[in-house]
Amino acid sequence: MEYSTLADRYEKLEAVASKLAKADIIGEFLKSIPSYELPKIVLLLQGRVYPSYSENELGIATQMMIKSISKASGFSAAKVEEIFKRTGDLGLTAEQCVKSKRQASLLKKKLTTDNVFENLQKLATIAGQGSQDKKFSLIAELIISAQPKEARYIVRTVLGELRIGAAEGIIRDAIVKAFLADEKSSKEEKEKATEAVENAWSLLNDYGEVAKIANEKGIKGLQKVGIQLGKPIQVMLGLAAEKIEDVVKEFGEIIAEYKYDGMRVVVEKKGNHFWLFTRRQEDVTKQFPDIVELAKKCLKADECIVEGEVLGIDTKTGYPLPFQAMSQRVHRKYDIDRLVKEIPVQVNLFDVMYVNGTPLFNEPLIERRKELARILKPIKGKFQLAKHIITGDVKKLEQFYGDAVEGKQEGLMLKVPNAPYVFGRHVGTMYKIKPVMENLDLVIIGAIWGEGGRTKWLTSYELACRDPNTGKFLSCGMMSTGLNEDEYELMTKELKKIIISENGKIVIVKPKIVLEVGYQEIQKSPNYESGFGLRFPRFVRVRDDKGPDEADTITRVKKLYSSQGKAG
Ligand code: AMP
What we know:
Elements: H1 3-15, H2 19-31, H3 38-45, H4 62-73, H5 77-87, H6 90-101, H7 113-125, H8 131-145, H9 148-159, H10 168-180, H11 187-204, H12 207-224, E1 237-240, H13 244-251, E2 254-259, E3 263-270, E4 273-277, H14 289-298, E5 303-312, H15 323-331, H16 336-342, E6 345-355, E7 358-359, H17 365-375, E8 383-385, E9 388-391, H18 394-406, E10 411-415, E11 426-433, E12 440-449, E13 458-466, E14 473-479, H19 485-496, E15 499-503, E16 506-509, E17 514-518, E18 521-524, E19 532-535, E20 538-542, H20 554-566
Parallel strand pairs: 1-11, 6-8
Antiparallel strand pairs: 2-9, 2-10, 3-4, 3-5, 5-6, 6-7, 10-11, 12-13, 12-16, 12-17, 13-14, 15-16, 17-20, 18-19
Helix pairs in contact: 2-10, 3-12, 4-5, 4-6, 4-8, 5-6, 6-9, 7-8, 8-9, 10-11, 10-12, 11-12
This protein binds adenosine monophosphate (AMP).
């Protein structure tokens, strides 16, 4: 397909706001695409060239893009930067630059989606000495070959911000519309089709593949998609509960487990092959050779998928290390052996979804736990079952909760014994209870350069909560305390990669980084888009296990505000 055909669709999608209209446009488009092209085109529609679980990242920062546009268009970097300041969008900047260059477009070879896709994939694989230069040339070449509109979308895809609003839910609905249900279908038929798409997606994590199966094999084919060892799954998520009593009242006897404050891990085993995935489907197998060794010794089934929480352990006290320890291990790509020794881990398992060819996710949790105990040869303190009790006695549960907190764990998870494992959803059968309810997970949407000795760092951060209805991020004010110098340095480095626009000392960034934030009080505030502001906000930690789509919502902020007893 010519890339310009795709660019036209991008433009159409950008021009409409409603989710329904977007799903219609994409649905119609998908229908016209031959099956073999679907995987690539669906990824491109999502602004990606790798599925979300892939380790590959394009790794292009704003400054490099400015340089590439400058090289491709012949404008100076300063001029490109000036246009960028005006448009606030490097895609539009590239479009303007290419347009003004007035190169005889007849001489240009037509770009195809294959060309663009393959070249962008290449970007992620360029590493080592001189890699920045190579990446820079590759992007510049693509821009040189592009028509103005194509340049807009190539640049945005490289930067990972396509801005056409094709969120996952919309792609899902579009696949349903294109291949599985039309206007004439009943509500039930549409729901069945949507469920089949979601089922396949939660196991494949790639809407491109899902679209191809939907087109070729329909609902039945999607329902048949099974567990694929070596690919990540979408984990099941819980809800917050205020009191143990409330959960017991609703469900009676429950399985209560320690809630460990570490990193969720899905361990997949196929013979001698092991894979470790995080809650966000990142492959962290290389970072944790110690967990692989433990899994080799302790998991008795030939094939299985189990799930648990990994803690870093303080060798002196035996207590869990703060969450940041795990974070260090996740992000370390070199010198791993040293870190294995410095931050030893403990894996606490709490679920199993698959054993030796049999999927278990439709089995009740209580049965899954029995199976987990059966296939596990635990090593105490290293690779073991999560601590748990099964009871409907509130007093016993309160006691167990006290033990958990005293043992420096985060709290409890309360789980309904007959609940199945539902991939990728927040379910009403699993609740977390934590002593400190008020911390919020908020997204950085802007920042300000520091003053005095701190001018080289971005030191104040504009925080925002999420509006689940629109997907927008609503400001809740600024935060600038709680970080040490190393943290400012690191944060500045990360934020610089995602700057959208800069005006004097103020920068706007792509909503990407989630912070856990403590504060004294939530106040009503007309100054911020959310209508609320935080009094004395302070940095607690980076929630690098959460994406912006998992940040706290405006609903939770309102609820916490009301629970302060000041609603009105
Ligand atoms: P939160 O991150 O506060 O939304 O809490 C949910 C997270 O708690 C999960 O994603 C797990 O990483 C973690 N967790 C710790 N212990 C357990 C447990 N026993 N069962 C399920 N999740 C747990």
